[in-house]
Design the sequence.
């Protein structure tokens, strides 16, 4: 790939990262204003703020290392499902709660499996759980 095109694509990535960061900060501001207006903070509000913090963490990690660690989206998914369970009405079908809780357990197992690969006998030869922004140079 020609160097100018690679630099342009890198610039586009940085701009999109910046847009994601600004959008997340605006969403946090709106959520805080809503909590101030309502004069009430619920657990669902706190979990939503936690999701925003995780997104900011993903942006930071990608900006610093040019990689997306797969555990961040898994933690966001667990938090989002927990928030969904909290927001549901009490009169919903209990099967839905079991499905959502099972999804949380399944995602948690996936996160544990991703962490287990750092054990020496299970260590992969490559970074299989990360998407690298830059491709490896040909030897």
Sequence:
């Amino acid at each position: 790939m020609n160097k100018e095109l690679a630099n342009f694509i890198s610039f586009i990535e940085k701009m999109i990262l910046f847009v994601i960061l600004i959008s997340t900060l605006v969403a946090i501001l709106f959520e805080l204003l809503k909590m101030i207006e309502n004069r009430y903070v619920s657990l669902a509000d706190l979990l939503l703020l936690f999701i925003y913090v995780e997104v900011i963490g993903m942006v930071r990690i990608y900006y610093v290392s040019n990689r997306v660690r797969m555990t961040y989206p898994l933690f966001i998914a667990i938090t989002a499902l927990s928030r969904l369970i909290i927001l549901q009405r009490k009169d919903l079908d209990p099967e839905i709660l079991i499905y959502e809780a099972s999804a949380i357990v399944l995602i948690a197992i996936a996160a544990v499996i991703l962490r287990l690969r750092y054990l020496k006998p299970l260590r992969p030869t490559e970074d299989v759980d990360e998407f690298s922004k830059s491709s490896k140079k040909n030897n």
Remarks:
- The longest strand covers residues 67-69.
- DSSP finds four helices and two strands in the chain.
